[in-house]
Amino acid sequence: MVPHEASSEHSEGSSHLLDSTFGSRYGQSSLPKYSLPETETPKEVAYQIISDELMLDGNPRLNLASFVTTWMEPECDKLILSALNKNYIDMDEYPITTEFQDRCVNMIARLFNAPVEDGKQAIGAGTVGSSEAIMLAGLAFKRKWQNERKAAGLPYDKPNLVTGANVQVCWEKFARYFEVELRDVKLREDYYIMDPAKAVELCDENTICVCAILGSTYNGEFEDVKTLNDLLDKKNKEKGWNIPIHVDAASGGFIAPFLYPDLVWDFRLPLVKSINVSGHKYGLVYAGIGWVIWRSKDDLPEELVFHVNYLGADQPTFTLNFSKGAYQVIAQYYQLIRLGFEGYKNIMENCAANAKALAQAIVDTGRFKLLSKEVGVPVVAFSLKDRSEHDEFEIADGLRRYGWTVPAYTMAPDAEKVSLLRVVVREDFSRSLGERLVTDLKRVLQTLDGQPSKLIQAVTAAVQEKHPELAHKGAVTAGDVKKSAAFDEGIRNHVHRKKHSGHKKHALAKTNGVC
Hints:
The chain has helices spanning 2-13, 15-18, 43-54, 74-82, 95-111, 129-151, 169-177, 196-201, 225-239, 256-259, 327-363, 392-400, 431-449, 454-466, 478-482, 485-499, 502-509; strands at residues 123-127, 160-164, 181-185, 207-213, 245-248, 272-278, 290-294, 306-310, 313-317, 368-370, 379-384, 408-410, 419-424. It is 42% helix and 13% strand. Strand 8 and strand 9 (313-317) form a beta hairpin.
C-alpha cells in the first residue's frame, strides 16, 4: 500500500503538468493585472494564455495607419533572432555590430549626397526611430546657435525653430523638453504643407533652424526644400544671419532617391545641415531604428559627442538612449546589402504603382477626392465629397469590421475643417489587398447609405434620454423624434459641442495613427 500511496501523492502534486492547458485550473483564472502573482505558471500555459489575449490585437499587415515595416525576409528574421541578446551600446564586446552601424551611416549619407570624400567616414548615428534622431539634430542646432551667440556677446536664452503645423508630434516634444519656441506655419485648405515663404517670414536672429518635411504624415506630400533653401539663403544674406535647414525625411528619405532622383532636397542644397530618416519605415526594417546624418563634422558640436575606445580605435557616440537592441542595426545592414540600389528602387516603384491604382479605384467610387499627391510617399489620402450624412470617422469604424485599420483624422491648423482617411502603401501591401480594401470600402458605404446620418442618430439618442416622454408608447424612430420641438434643441446643443471640441480632435490626430 505504501508504494500506491506515494504514487497517489506524486500524482496530486504534479497533476498540473499532465492536464491540458484548457483543462487545468489556469483556464478559470484571470491574468494578473496589478500585482505580481504569488506562484509560478507553467511555461506552456503562460504562452497559451498570453497568445490568446494577443489574438485581439489588430493584424499588423492590415494596419494601414502605420508607415512602419511589418514584413521582412525569413533570412533576416533569423539574423534578428540570433542577435536579440546583444546590447548595441556594448561596443567593446560587439565591435562588428558597431562597424555595421558605421557602414549604414556611410551608405545613407552618400545616398543623401553628403559631401564625404571617398574612403572617409560620414557623420551620423543610429537611433531609436526618427524621434531620437530629431532630438539629436535639434540639440546640435541649439548648441551651435548658443555657441555662436556667446562668442558674439549676444543673448542666447530664447531659441526658436520654424516648422509647418503638419510636423510630427516629436518636434513638439523636442521644443517642450529642450525649451525651444516652436513657430509653426499654419496650413490652409488645399495647401497642406509648409509654405516656404511664410516659414522664412517667421525667422529671426534667434531661429536655430527651419525644418522641412519630406513626406508629411498627413498626406505624404513633399515640402519644397529647394525653394526654402533659396529664400532662406537670400534672407540670411540680407540680415547677416546663418539659419540652417533640417530635413525630416522620416518617411521620404528612402523614397526620393529611388523614385525622384532629380528632386533636389538633400545635401546638394548648401543650407541643409542634417537629415533624419526612419529605417523602420521605407528603410524596410522592423520598428526601432532611425538614422540622423550631418553634412559635416562642423555641424555637430564636439561637446555633444562622447568618445569610447574599442580595439584601439576612437568611436564617437551621440545618443540619448543607452542600452538598446543591436538587431535593428544588423537588420538595416542586411537590407542595404541584400537589396542595393536596384532592389530598393524596384520595391518603391511597386509601392508607388499600387498606391496609384488604389487611388484611382477610390476616386472611381465617385464619393471621394484625393488629398495626396503623385510626387510623395506612397500614401493615399482622401476625403468625402459630401459629409452631410456621414463622415470619415464612420467609414474608419466600418472598415475595422472587415479587419482593416484605416485612420481618420483632421488636418493640422488652420485646416482643421478638413477630415480625411489615409492608407499607407507599404512593401507588403499587394495589388490584391488593395482591390479587397476597395471592395470592403464600397460595402461600408452601402451600409452607411442605409442608415440615418450620424447627427440624426446622436441627437435622437440625446433627445430620448432628456425627454423620455417621447418614448412612452414604446420604441421611437429617428423620424418620430425629428418631428418634435426637442429635436431642434438637441441639434443646437450638438452643433455647439462639436464646435468647441475641434481642438481636442486635432490633438488626438497628432498621436492616433498618424505616425
